[in-house]
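cron nightly-structures :: item 1 of 1
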Amino acid sequence: MHDVARNLLNMKDVEKGYASRSVLRGITLGIAAGERIGLVGENGGGKSTLLRLLAGLEMADAGEITRAGDVGVALVGQYDELDETQSVREALVGVRAEHEWAGERAFRGVLEGLLGGVAVELFAQGIDTPVAGLSGGERRRIALARLLLEPPELLLLDEPTNHLDVEGVDWLASHLAARRGAMVVVTHDRWFLDAVCTATWELADGEIHAYEGGYAAYVLARAERERQASSREDRRRQLVRKELAWLRRGPPARTSKPKFRIEAASALIADEPQPRDRAELLRFAGARLGDRVLDAVEVSLTLGGRELLRDVTWRLGPGDRVAIVGVNGSGKTSLLRLLAGELQPSAGHVKRGSTVRLAHLSQETTELPQTLGVLEALEEVRGEATLSGGERITAALLCDRFGFRGDEARTPVAELSGGERRRLALMRLLMAGPNVLLLDEPTNDLDIDTLTALEDLLDGWPGTLIIVSHDRYFVERVCD
């Protein structure tokens, strides 16, 4: 007989709301020792609220939350406050002498994985760098490292992969999968969910739906659930089918771990076409762009005394779909800005084709018209756009696909959250009808349903696409 895992935390009939809005409705769940749970759902649906309830940082309006008496619980949220008066050393290890921690293997592993080494080479003044001068992303790394140096039995993480490069995400996934403690993680990074999680919780309409396995297993189970509830949400079901088809046709490793019935999956997607008709997209892109798109010829780039590019020649043609990956600080964003004409090379030149209409989504918040509603802000750019094969998409339909449904499409821009502003900026970019798209970390702040809608739209988008992203699932999904 197997030992039953110890129950760490239970919720029974938990309710939570703000003002007149109900966020969590009758939530009943349990977390056992060693479970690694991925929590997914729409932005604003209550995922962060649920984590805060689990951490004991907020009280439920109704219901019970019980914890095993000796269980330690800690949360790294999206906006962690570090003490501005401290150095990185003090934030990480307090007043402990260096000989007490620098030689410990677990400490070294965390510092090397997240901060460049025991001396914290990631920052200019190393481990003695003042916290006050660090960026939001750097602070997130420190908050995450501090928690992992002395982890509790139940770890709660809210979007831990934001601000990490591909190597950082890879290290974090390996570290979390190897530890024995329990975890609940909110993330939109689907590769990370598959690599780390043993179960997935979907928070939808204030209720939890629990599934075994990581993201791929969740996609199948959700597709089956929605097939049975066939009267609901045709569009959403189509996107789930499309993604499932892509998952099943992908590398075997992606679907080897989840325990689902292959026959059921095959029947569900038997008539589902490939996500992209590459030949059709290339034909359409060639007609819109001609032969020349962007040519970087013998380009060098030095910024702030740092050489980022040396004698690079790179030609981008019509319909190319390219991902740029690399460690943080290696110059990915600068390369996009160079291609967009926002930076000039130190040597060499960048030539742009005469028919190119280029749009660039940066990581910074774009200027948006504060006095307009979401739909008005979109229609200000254009009322409708054309996809491959001549398919037209109106501003109202695009709003619906990207989660601004019904009255939400009339929400004033000034009242939007950071994630909603990012969504609107992306929609305005697409609606402008560019034929070359440069996207810098487009998946930041998007929930999984919005990511799926973006991937679906990019499947039918005929043009040249260059993406900087740490989200390897997104990269595999939309790039060639």
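cron nightly-structures :: done
The longest helix spans residues 234-249.
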